[in-house]
């Protein structure tokens, strides 16, 4: 749609006739996010509260459509990029957030770890260095004061505040490790979320067919990267009265991780009474094929 036509449609958004407004809104909703500056400019130049509300709703709906499109594309083509999936989760709350801003902060953390590494370190020594940089130097920790807040699952907020929940801290940890060639992957453990350090010879694509011996040990980012053995995970599963499952001990997919981040946000909005936001998150979850995952 050309610029002049878009401008003409925007001027019709204040039409009192609901049928005309609905038609105009429908046409504008077909457009991409690059029309948002024009909508924002229209909002700034009107003093009619009803018109402003219409513009606000339209801007939000276009931005939400953009996030949905991003998730569809990620699920179809780019699921191997965990950080981008986590970025899309944040983009729901912060529509103008850029991937570059997230990526730059992760790369700085990666650089800080890389400076301390060398080729002769054991797996445990590498983990101790990551733990030192993340938890001692940069002060990443669990958000104890507001653990259920949706911000704990938004990677941009966690990178800014250095406080998060098990899954967001695990995402940051895993992405940094993998960018350094260290095989650390997420494990979708119920009522927690941990990481598995794989044997270098393990192939993640066939890990489900392998035995748990492919995992050298586990890492608990919510407890400053404490190293755990299989028996400690078994004890946790028993303590939580969970039926033991193989997938509690093996790496999960990036799709599973991002889906769980969205689930956390959904429950945060649902329990705090933000029903509209919860419904939109549920709409995003429906793209994953199982909203309860």
UniProtKB/TrEMBL annotation:
Listed InterPro entries: SirB1_N
Pfam families: Transglut_core2
Domain Protein SirB1 N-terminal: 101-263
Domain of life of the native organism: Bacteria
UniProt similarity note: Belongs to the UPF0162 family.
Name of this protein: Regulator of sirC expression, contains transglutaminase-like and TPR domains
